[in-house]
Amino acid sequence: MHVDSTERKWVILSFLMAFAMIGILAAYAINYNIRPPSNVETIDSTALQLTEEFAEDSLGLKKAEDGSLVVTMVAMRYGFYPQDMKVPANTPITFRIASADVLHGVHTAGTNMNTMVVPGYVSQLTTTFPKPGKYPMFCNEYCGLGHDFMWSRLIVVPKEEFKFGEDS
Ligand code: CUA
User: Fold this and answer.
1) DSSP notation for 92-129
2) Are 119 and 45 in contact (CB under 8 A)?
3) Which terminus in the chain has less CB density within 10 A, N or C?
4) What percent of the chain has pLDDT over 90?
5) Is residue 117 within 8 Å of 105, Cβ to Cβ?
6) How many CA atoms lie within 13 A of 31 on its CB side?
7) Exposed e or buried b for every residue in 13-33, given b needs 16+ CB within 10 A?
8) Which helix (DSSP H) or strand (DSSP E) does residue 87 occupy?
9) What percent of the chain has pLDDT over 70?
10) Is the CB of 101 within 6 Å of ligand 1?
11) How far is the CA of 106 from the centre of ligand 1 (A)?
């Protein structure tokens, strides 16, 4: 089969470009510790208040039986609950987030925390915040007219200053 040399060059070039893009994506993902969600767990989004974990009174930061820190959150039009949450810096924290209505996203600016919150599923991720400060948490999936106003705040306090159970 005859392939024109210019044609061949472009075929090779387009393959090289595709591999370069895959390489850039992989390098970026490894460098910034970006991983696909791995937790598959279903929940009835219409009855979150009836569950033990996602009822209004049990949201927020908790210590799991093994001593690790777990945050349970509910995303609903148009806010994240609880709002203004305090967490310690330099400590692995597992977030468990459920939607009470439609598709939302949680993106905490300046960190690697970014996940979709799909109704019917529990989104789970574990991350560590190295730098203390106030981080805005945004919804990044269009969820209705109030989408632009759907945000809350994560307050990362230095590990030594963090006291468990103090308005967290
Ligand atoms: Cu919730 Cu956009």
Assistant:
1) -EEEEEEESSS-EEEEETTSS-EEEE-TTBEEEEEE--
2) yes
3) N
4) 57
5) yes
6) 6
7) eeeeeeeeeeeeeeeeeeeee
8) strand 85-88
9) 96
10) no
11) 8
pTM score: 0.78
Q: How many angstroms separate the alpha carbon of residue 35 from the centre of ligand 1?
A: 22
Which residue has a Cα nearest atom 1 of ligand 1? Answer: 104
Q: Tell me, what amino acid is at 30?
A: I
d(CA 157, CA 139): 23
Amino acid identity of residue 36, one-letter, is P
Per the CB < 8 A criterion, the answer to whether 61 and 73 are in contact is: no
How far apart are alpha carbons 104 and 110 in whole angstroms?
19
Task: Indicate whether residue 139 lines ligand 1 (CB < 6 A).
Answer: yes
* Beta-ladder partners of 122: 98
Both structure tokens of 43: 């929940």
Alpha carbon distance 83, 136 (integer Å): 10
Res. 37: pLDDT tops 80: no
C-beta of 104 in contact with ligand 1 (< 6 A): yes
Per DSSP, helices labelled H in the chain are 5-31
pLDDT average, residue stretch 38-65: 84
